[in-house]
């Protein structure tokens, strides 16, 4: 089968590899659509293969690390012990898998599993393996497009997670810093959950347009105005009820901590990658009475089902986030395009 492999920092190659086999509790999925995510870029450009493969030994092939963690497909093989799934089912798996048995999984926090769950990998291939399949895999209703199904596995759940873990109430004001794919999902999530004023912060023209389309009332361009002072003046100098950080930079972290009102919630979903530490202003009124919530893609069967139900019944359609479509063989080119952020690229659909 064809698979995208990271052979060196910043370099991917398409290789012909054996189709994987399903071990106990596992399934093998035949991919029908996959995509590249911002997390893939951290893995590709910043983290050496030795570290990635040490974290997850089964992610290794002799040539390197198997790329990709967001995909939809049909069940190709069912391993021993899997009871909920059959060959031919159209399915997704959360991009972070839980074991279903450790203390975190029993709390419902599958994405921070310590019992052997792991990030998916190898989804940018014709076939890939999902561990603990009964816990992490959900059947996709026929009304849900491949595009929306792929997004439910990670960025939709992550962006919506920024909003629901902030416990946003009907009519709350929200500011979302950065409108990349995850930030745009947070915008759509704020609208779906009943926010009042939705302010977003973004400078790329295509992303500004998409932000308005998915629910932003006001988009602040940080190249033209200071986002924090603008947010303060839009909220009678009180700050927003919820401020979301969706890119993972010290500047946007500082932005959300200063844009939130007294008693409000700063909600973090950016991946800080190479940023080892962030700091907060203590000389602001809001410092002494607020919540800070960080979220790693809420995962597991129940979460995936809920995301798919929002799409199935027409509450949300994130299909427009797919700006480009390419063949799996062109995945290395797709990485270059995604990294460049040129041509209005948000998500790239990759099909066999
Ligand atoms: Zn992802
Ligand atoms: Zn677990």
Sum up the structure in keywords.
352 residues, alpha/beta, 17 strands, binds zinc ion
Record field, number of beta strands: 17
What is the count of DSSP helices, taking H or I runs of 4+ residues?
Answer: 12
Relative strand content? 25-35%
Compute the separation of the termini in Å: 10 Å
| Strand order, sheet with most strands | 12-11-10-13-14-15
Q: Mind describing the biggest β-sheet?
A: 6 strands, parallel
What is the averaged pLDDT score? 96
Describe the structure.
Strands 12-11-10-13-14-15 form a six-stranded parallel sheet, with helices on both faces. It is globular and about 60 Å long. It is an alpha/beta fold and about 350 residues long. Helix 6 crosses helix 7 and helix 9 (about 225-235) runs parallel beside helix 10 (about 250-260). The chain has twelve helices and 17 strands. The chain has helices at about 40-45, 50-55, 105, 135, 145-150, 155-165, 180-190, 205-215, 225-235, 250-260, 300-310, 330-340; strands at about 1-10, 10-15, 25-35, 60, 65, 70-80, 90-95, 125-130, 135-140, 175, 200, 220, 240-245, 260-270, 290-295, 320-325, 345-350. Helix 7 links the parallel strand 10 and strand 11 (about 200). Bound molecules: zinc ion (ZN) (2 copies). One zinc ion binds near residues 102, 104 and 115.
């Amino acid at each position: 089968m064809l698979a995208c492999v990271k052979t060196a920092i910043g370099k991917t190659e398409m290789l012909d590899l054996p189709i994987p086999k399903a071990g106990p509790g596992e399934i093998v999925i035949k991919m029908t659509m996959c995509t590249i995510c911002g997390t893939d870029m951290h893995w590709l450009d910043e983290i050496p293969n030795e570290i990635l493969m040490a974290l997850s030994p089964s992610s290794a092939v002799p040539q390197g690390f198997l790329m990709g963690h967001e995909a939809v497909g049909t069940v190709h093989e069912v391993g021993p012990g899997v009871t909920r799934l059959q060959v031919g089912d159209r399915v997704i798996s959360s991009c972070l898998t839980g074991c279903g048995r450790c203390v975190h999984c029993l709390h419902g926090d599958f994405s921070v599993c310590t019992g052997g769950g792991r990030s998916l990998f190898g989804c940018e291939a014709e076939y890939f393996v999902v561990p603990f399949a009964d816990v992490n895999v959900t059947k996709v209703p026929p009304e849900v497009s491949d595009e929306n199904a792929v997004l439910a596995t990670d960025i939709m759940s992550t962006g919506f997670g920024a909003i629901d873990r902030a416990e946003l109430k009907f009519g709350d004001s929200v500011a979302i810093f950065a409108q990349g794919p995850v930030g745009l999902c947070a915008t759509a999530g704020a609208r779906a959950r009943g926010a009042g004023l939705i302010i977003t912060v973004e400078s790329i023209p295509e992303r500004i347009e998409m932000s308005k389309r998915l629910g932003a009332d006001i988009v602040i361009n940080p190249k033209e105005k200071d986002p924090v002072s603008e947010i303060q003046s839009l909220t009678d100098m009180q700050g927003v009820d919820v401020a979301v950080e969706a890119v993972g930079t010290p500047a946007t972290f500082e932005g959300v901590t200063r844009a939130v009102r007294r008693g409000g919630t700063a909600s973090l979903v950016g991946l800080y990658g190479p940023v080892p530490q962030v700091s907060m202003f203590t000389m602001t009124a809001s410092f002494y009475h607020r919540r800070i919530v960080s979220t790693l893609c809420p995962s597991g069967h129940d979460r995936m089902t809920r995301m798919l139900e929002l799409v199935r019944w027409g509450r949300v359609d994130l299909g427009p986030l797919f700006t480009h479509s390419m063949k799996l063989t062109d995945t290395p080119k797709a990485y270059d395009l995604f990294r460049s952020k040129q041509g209005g690229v948000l998500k790239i659909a990759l099909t066999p």
